[in-house]
Amino acid sequence: MMPTQPCSPPDDRKHRVLILKMGYSETLDPDTSGVVSLGDILRATVVLHAFPPDKYEVTWLVDQKGVDLLKGNPYIHRILTVNPFTPFHLMSDWFDMVVNFEKDPGICAMVDKISAWRRYGFRFDHVTHEAHAYDNSDQALSMSKSTSFKRQQTKSWSTMLYEMIGHQYDNKPYILGYQPKSQEIYDIGLNHQVGGKFPIKRWPDPNWQQLHDALAGEYSFSWQQGMDNIESYIEWINSCRLLVTNDSLGLHIALALGKKIVALFGPTKASEVDECDCMIKLKPDIDWECIPCLAASCHKPEGLCMEHISQDSVIEAVKKLLSPH
After folding, report:
1. Bond before 87 cis per omega within 30 degrees
2. Residues 105 and 26 in one domain
3. Among 49, 155, 158, 223, which is least packed by CB within 10 angstroms?
């Protein structure tokens, strides 16, 4: 039996919102690995602007690995972590609104049993036993199921998330909970590593070293630090004036901190990251039909597309962003 839904909330109290973004499935990607994506969690914080704390009381369900990205966030009233008892906790509660950004069928089935007045994102289909879409989320679900459909889209990730909750995106940034205390002491940070889920997003190691050697006499450098601790990682990024980065968590942290960024894209879509004056996006200087392939591995005999982002283009972008004029 489905729980009784609450009445429409009165206007004289804060509306209770539940957001489910544990990081298990990337919202707009056909990902079923179950590996926690910290970048996906951070990117989802952009929707919090639609729920200002003076009007909404937000509960966010996240995997324990993502807590450090959310704790201290002024838009989040309560953080819940995933454990065997979480479903019983949530099904005994009630909310004015539930936003589910996870596509796992089991999570969707649990979400459908939570008492709520309005629902957004993904739900459980009792016929196919798969994730289905609530109103406004059909396009997002199609993108996550079809690589060819996703490659044709030009909307940013933030725009798509806002459409899923029935709002219009107005270029708001991600919201970090942790506020770094470090000062800018390096001109350039080299964010050269990527997560294990999509290793082909990485610009090759020799290119990073050559970039360092080419600019070392002109700028101060720091190689990527703090990867074993989110707060330390944020502190390191904040200590750099500019970040040269693959498409990774570091890119999104740098955007949240308002840093200058040279972002390197190949197998992933550059258009999914919003444009801003502080960032220059670079892509391979080749005409391969497979770019962006959106794949986790590559078997082309010609090598990886990331090898074709030229050293000169990165140097030019760095100098342009760091120029005092």
Report:
1. no
2. yes
3. 223
Inter-CA distances, 96 with 6, 14, 46, 102, 247, Å? 7, 10, 20, 19, 35
**10 within some domain:** no
Say which amino acid occupies 130. Answer: E
Among candidate residues 279, 270, 276, 275, the one with its CA nearest the CA of residue 321:
279
Structure tokens at 170: 């107005």
- Min mean pLDDT across 150-154, 162-166, 202-206, 267-271 is at 150-154
- What domain count does the chain have? 2
pLDDT tens digit string along 12-69? Answer: 689 999 999 998 866 545 555 567 889 999 999 999 999 999 999 999 999 999 999 9
Domain of residue 193 covers 186-322
Q: Tell me, what CATH number does 141's domain have?
A: 3.40.50
Q: Which two tokens stand for residue 316?
A: 């030019």
What pTM does this model have? Answer: 0.88
Token pair of 147, please? 């690589």
Query: What secondary structure does DSSP assign to 198-240, as a single string?
Result: -GGGSPPHHHHHHHHHHHTTTS-EEE---TT-HHHHHHHHHTE
Which residues are CB-contacts of 25 (< 8 A; sequence separation ≥ 6)? Answer: 31, 32, 34, 102, 103, 104, 144
| DSSP string of 160-202, one letter each residue | HHHHHTT-----PPP--SS-------EEEEEE----SS-GGGS
Structure tokens at 70: 């959310």
**H or E segment and range at residue 263:** strand 260-264
pLDDT digits (tens, 9 = 90+) for 235-266: 999 999 999 999 999 999 999 999 999 999 99
Closest CA to 223 of 244, 253, 203: 244
